[in-house]
Specification:
alpha+beta; seven-stranded mixed sheet; binds adenosine-5'-[phenylalaninyl-phosphate]; metal-binding
Length: 325
């Protein structure tokens, strides 16, 4: 009896100092296995006199159950610890700073385009768009630009075939709009245009915004006021606008328009009163209708406003440039 109770104390000791499954298993075999110490005690039971059997049996059973219980508890504990260790290994510290990603922003040209759209929309203009691949009729003929005009030269434009080209300006939108709508109308049309140009103030692909206003009794004063209002909103209250006489086949009279900004006159657009021939080409009666049109270069406006010296910076995609604006 004493021996059996000592077995329990020994087993308890061993179990509490075990700290992995393998040693627990060995302990189980040592005490409860087929040839285990407790099992051997049980076998002794048979040899005992009848009257001692129940008492001894009860003690052995108790010891066996106790060891079993201790083993199971320890097993549970080890399992738990192993789980914690595993999680510890793959643990993610959510308070660590993450991989930093730079946030993009709109390109300076898109910003200038949207700013101008907002200004003209607030004055009652509607935004329309048109195709970048144009035919010579919309791009030139309908705009009163005859065959001999230098703008039609293959040296100046990108042709697909004799009658198809990349539009050289947004003015064909005037034609497309007037063929579709009845006057009065007021539209602006931003978009890419293409020419065989390339230097610090000229790109082969650049952005224009066309403006067209057709109504009764439209005069140069309406044109000048509209452009002055635009200039004040883009460049500030002190901005001034100057019209210089110029020539475009589709306007009469025609102007080149400069703005006064930070001490300089800078040319930003071409404009004029819609030529009666253009009205005739789209079926408007020039005796009834009058209008003004303008075509401004968005890159040039951005250059003036932000002091950008080389127009090619817009398309170089150098982040150091892009991040500035
Ligand atoms: C025209 O394109 C006319 N269609 C403008 C117009 C519209 C006149 C309606 C009258 C009525 P021009 O070729 O001058 O005109 O170009 C207009 C503006 O586009 C210029 O003032 C300039 O700001 C810009 N521009 C012209 N060529 C380039 C280029 N290669 N790169 C960047 N900007 C350019």
């Amino acid at each position: 009896m004493k021996e059996v109770k000592e077995l329990l104390i020994e087993a308890k000791d061993e179990i509490s100092s075990a700290n992995d499954m393998a040693s627990l298993n060995n302990i189980r075999i040592k005490y409860l296995g087929k040839k285990g110490l407790v099992t051997l005690e049980m076998k002794k039971l048979k040899k005992l006199p009848q009257e001692e059997k129940p008492k001894f049996g009860a003690v052995i059973n108790k010891v066996r159950n106790e060891i079993e219980k201790l083993l199971n508890e320890k097993m549970e504990e080890i399992r738990k610890n192993e789980k914690i260790k595993k999680f510890e290994k793959i643990r993610v510290d959510v308070t660590l700073p993450g991989a930093k990603r730079d946030k993009g922003h709109l390109h300076i040209l898109t910003k200038v385009q949207r700013e101008l759209e907002d200004i003209f929309i607030s004055m009652g203009f509607e935004v329309v768009e048109g195709p970048e691949v144009e035919d010579t009729w919309h791009n030139f003929d309908a705009l009163n630009t005859p065959e001999w005009h230098p703008a039609r030269d293959a040296q100046d434009s990108f042709y697909f075939d004799e009658k198809t080209l990349l539009r050289t300006h947004t003015s064909p939108i005037q034609i497309r709009t007037m063929l579709e709508k009845k006057p009065p109308l007021a539209i602006i049309s931003p978009g890419r245009v293409f020419r065989r140009d390339y230097d610090s103030t000229h790109l082969p692909m650049f952005t224009q915004m066309e403006g067209l206003y057709v109504d009764k009794n439209v005069t140069v004063r309406h044109l000048k006021y509209t452009l002055e209002e635009m200039a004040r909103r883009v460049f500030g209250e002190s901005a001034k606008v100057r019209l210089k006489p110029s020539f475009f086949p589709f306007t009469e009279p025609s102007y080149e328009v400069d703005v006064w900004f930070q001490g300089n006159w800078l040319e930003i657009l071409g404009a004029g009163m819609v030529d009666p021939n253009v009205f005739r080409n789209v079926g408007y009666d020039p005796e009834t209708w009058s209008g003004f049109a303008f075509g401004l270069g968005l890159e040039r406006i951005a250059m003036v406003k932000y002091g950008i010296k080389d127009i090619r910076d817009f398309i170089r995609n150098d982040v150091r440039f892009l991040e500035n604006y």
